Amino acid sequence: VGYDRKYYATFNLRQLNNFFIGYLILLCLWLVVLVVLAGKLHNNPISWRGDSALDDGKEVTLDLSKGMYDAGDHMKFGFPMAFTGTVLSWTILEYGDQMKAAQHLTPAIDSLKWITDYLVNAHPSENVLYIQVGNPKDDHACWERPEDMKEKRPLTQVNTSTPGTEVAAETAAALASASLVFKSSDSAYSSLLLKHAEQLFHFADAFRASYSLSIPEVQQFYNSTGYKDELLWAAAWLYHATQDQTYLNYVTVENGQAFAEWGDPTWFSWDNKLAGTQVICFSVTI
């Protein structure tokens, strides 16, 4: 069969170009993640980053040194960090083979575990979740390297008296989705993540209140517009991780009509997960 040599060459150059673009995007994303890592760093290729935030959580005898800083700040905001963990898990589950071919699967999994280790430690009991480390006003007023931090690092938590449904549910989604990533490689760790995920979901559902109302200070930074989407998002991931029909019923029967806005979501972000919930429900039930 004959072929057009010019077309064939162009096609392969395009393929090669797309490969390098994809590789560079993955490399840049990986480097961004490495830049914002907190805690005691091991074999970090970023030469100008060192250990930081090693005492985070010590006043309540918790190790909250890991996790990731928010943007160029030294804050640890649990809500967007948990969402990052959920989406990173989803990415690994969907595109793990391609990431492995590009030699970026292991760094992605390592980055995910840096987040989940922090989230597990931030959940010391069933109905308590530490959602923030640092004072955002003080932090934003100070420009310094995290390695040089000397200011106090206050902790903020949600609990039965000060509930925060969306951040607890998002953390549940992060840990449930991550449990799937580690299921074959580290079953004990996967089970630990799933245990915390289920506890956090039940806490979020039993004590329904927006963390933006319970803790008004967060409104200036990661204000939530509602918690219904996080409850459905977490339940969808828990169904994916457990195949427990009660979680699917929670999304599609008990709360679907009131919360889901089936067919209407127009965007997907750390504040609105309805579109993602519909994709997950579709993918795990077809």
Describe, in plain words, how this protein is organized in 3D.
The protein is mainly alpha-helical and 286 residues long. Helices cover 56% and strands 4% of the residues. It has eleven helices and three strands; from the N terminus they run αβααβαβααααααα. The chain has helices spanning 5-35, 78-101, 105-121, 136-140, 165-181, 187-206, 211-214, 228-242, 245-254, 256-260, 274-285; strands at residues 76-77, 129-133, 155-158. The chain has a three-stranded antiparallel β-sheet. The longest helix is centred in the first third of the chain and has 31 residues, at 5-35. It is globular, with a radius of gyration of 20 Å. Residues 1-11 have low confidence and may be disordered.
